[in-house]
Amino acid sequence: MSATTTTTEFGKVGVLFGGRSAEREVSLMSGTGVLEALKAKGVDAHAFDPGERSIADLAAEKFDRVFIALHGRFGEDGSLQGALEQLDIPYTGSGVMACAIGMDKVYTKMIWLMNKLPTPQYATLDANSDLSTVVAELGLPVMIKPPLEGSTIGITKVTLEPELQAAVDLAASLGDVVLAEQFVTGREFTVAVLGKGRAAKALPIVEIVAPGGNYDYQNKYFTDDTKYFCPAVIDDATSAEMQRLAVLAYNALGCEGWGRIDFMLRESDNKPFLIEANTSPGMTSHSLVPMAARALGISYEDLCVEILRSARLKMAKGQG
């Protein structure tokens, strides 16, 4: 596709990145990469940072469509998607409801369990919870997470009961509800999904091998110590099952356009467990969706264009 054709096809494009969430730093990296890639393909792309500019400014730009490269709250949680629906600006990724549910790890698990999809046992906690019951119900180790944060922010793996209170306090500092999740000992994987509904397709699986099994914020984005294997070295049956579950999990939440589903593969029996969904995955140099696309021969630039091509409004027009 020529640069002229691409520009004509998409019109004026806004790349939304930065924002106000705890993942702002990562979003700046993602968005910069997307902006440069789209410009390289001849798209009339422009940077827009909702963390520094208002919704009124966004409306005034008169974008024909936008690529959302925001992560976390106020960008991945449905709030911005609702504003874009009101402004009549087509956007990439999932709609308001899927983003809101996918951003909340507790509600994501509830939806998956309703659909009989495998995910670790869990409990929700607050400031008045009896923490001794957490160990009795879920055992140790246990993962303590703030349900509304991404990029492993505020997450603690607790191996000893005396460590539990500090972990809960950390997660509670980021929100009123805390998620305690049974720890699955095994290998860590992720599966990117593109498309919508019956047309949704899983990309090649990525295995993540972090130093000491600690795939934290630093090891995700700022070191080269984490190793990635794509396609993952697993048997065909397990690979097919994980890809099948990824599409089912993605569709159960109502996701569309693109997304990523994270897994743990239990060491004892090779059973895959769904961990969380990402409705606006990272697009940095270390990110996993571009890695999976490359395994199919899809360049970073072409991936960005394909995601942009899927941009649309998700809500039906009202009768006026």
UniProtKB/TrEMBL annotation:
Occurrences of domain ATP-grasp (ranges): 109-309
Keywords, alphabetical: ATP-binding, Cell shape, Cell wall biogenesis/degradation, Cytoplasm, Ligase, Magnesium, Manganese, Metal-binding, Nucleotide-binding, Peptidoglycan synthesis
Cofactor(s) named in the record: Mg(2+); Mn(2+)
Positions with a binding annotation for Mg(2+) 1: D262, E276
Subcellular location per the Swiss-Prot or TrEMBL entry: Cytoplasm
Catalytic activity as recorded in UniProt: 2 D-alanine + ATP = D-alanyl-D-alanine + ADP + phosphate + H(+)
GO molecular function: ATP binding; D-alanine-D-alanine ligase activity; metal ion binding
InterPro entries, sorted: ATP-grasp, ATP_grasp_subdomain_1, D-Ala_lig_Van_CS, D_ala_D_ala, Dala_Dala_lig_C, Dala_Dala_lig_N, PreATP-grasp_dom_sf
Record: residues binding Mg(2+) 2: E276, N278
Any one annotated GO CC term: cytosol
Cofactor detail note: Binds 2 magnesium or manganese ions per subunit.
Pathway(s) this gene product operates in, as recorded in its UniProt entry: Cell wall biogenesis; peptidoglycan biosynthesis
Annotated EC: 6.3.2.4
Active site annotation, chain numbering: E23, S151, S287
Taxonomy, superkingdom: Bacteria
UniProt xrefs under Pfam families: Dala_Dala_lig_C (PF07478), Dala_Dala_lig_N (PF01820)
BP GO annotations: cell wall organization; peptidoglycan biosynthetic process; regulation of cell shape
Family to which the UniProt record says this protein belongs: Belongs to the D-alanine--D-alanine ligase family.
Annotated function: Cell wall formation.
Name of the protein this chain belongs to: D-alanine--D-alanine ligase
Native species: Massilia polaris
